[in-house]
Amino acid sequence: MTRNIQLERKLLHFSTLFALLFAVMGISLGAWIGSLVIIFDGAYSLVSLFLTLVSVAAASYIHKPRKHPSAINITKVEPMVIAFKGLVITLMCCISFASAVEAILNGGRDVNTGVALIFGVINVLGCIGAYWLMVKKGKRANSGLVDAEAKQWLMDTVISIAVMIGFVFAKILSLTEYQSYAVYADPVMVIIVSIYFIIVPLKMTYKAIQQLALDKQLVSHGNNHDDSISSTS
């Protein structure tokens, strides 16, 4: 299947704008109601935005006409971008985990669960919509960059669902005799999400590095083959 360059660009641009919207919403609301996990969600969207811009630049570079295309190994660009994205997301998960542990040690965080639940519903619906669009249209685009974007939106979707479930649980706790434990719900959610989602970017990075190693082996084999032909001649 051939690569649909025009559709690839449209999907990457859409992902950029949507990630910006969720980043602004998440970070602003999270700071307002004092929720570490919503800030994490917004920060993930902000990181997604930055990484999408990297993907857009990579896609533009890959498809840019060149007078001497053989001088630059274009096949390495896409796996390098995907590996970079995986490493950045992994780093963000590690930082979030450390922040959540610190919050628990400091006595938890008191959060307005009512407002958080409303945000959670909106966030989940938006992320599901973005993921569905990336998967459905991404098949026609036949692009590894769009596939990586779909994985990012899948992670954001599950993060949003986990956040919403966590706030439901926190709300229930606040109405019982165990209300004193409700302040730990927010950082505990961050810890769970960070541990779970570090697996996805690590897999992305591993596969991209494998691809780079395979390309290197093929190039090395090709050069050795050419040398043997030259020596025979």
TrEMBL record:
GO terms for biological process: intracellular zinc ion homeostasis. The keyword Hydrolase does not apply. The keyword Transmembrane applies. It comes from the Bacteria. It is found in: Membrane. It is a multi-pass membrane protein. Keywords: Membrane, Transmembrane, Transmembrane helix, Transport. The chain crosses the membrane at residues 12-37, 43-62, 82-105, 111-133, 153-175, 181-202. Gene3D superfamilies: Cation efflux protein transmembrane domain (1.20.1510.10). Residues 13-212 form the Cation efflux protein transmembrane domain. InterPro entries: Cation_efflux_TM (IPR058533), Cation_efflux_TMD_sf (IPR027469), CDF_Transporter (IPR050291). One of its GO terms (cellular component) is plasma membrane. One of its GO terms (molecular function) is cadmium ion transmembrane transporter activity. PANTHER family: MITOCHONDRIAL METAL TRANSPORTER 1-RELATED. This is Hypothetical cation efflux system component. It comes from Photobacterium profundum (strain SS9). The gene is CPE1621.
